[in-house]
Amino acid sequence: MIAGTxxxxxxxxxxxxEREVAADRDMWSVIERIRAAGVxxxxxxxxxxxxxxxxxxxxxxxxxxxxxxxRTISSGFQRTAG
Length: 82
Fold this sequence. Notes:
Layout: H1 5-37, E1 42-43, H2 51-60, E2 67-68
């Protein structure tokens, strides 16, 4: 075994654990925001250029969380047969 290898491996592992903890904290933050909102509108839009306008209107109306459904070509996502 090379001297110092265990220390470097331990640092890498510690960083991975820190990232996992941060990701879990972020996930729980989102879950708490959804729970607090009580209602999550599901939105489908035909013009992606209007997404910011829609988000601002929903936020102004007290709905700070929205689920966006990508079903149109304008969304930038296309389903391919396969």
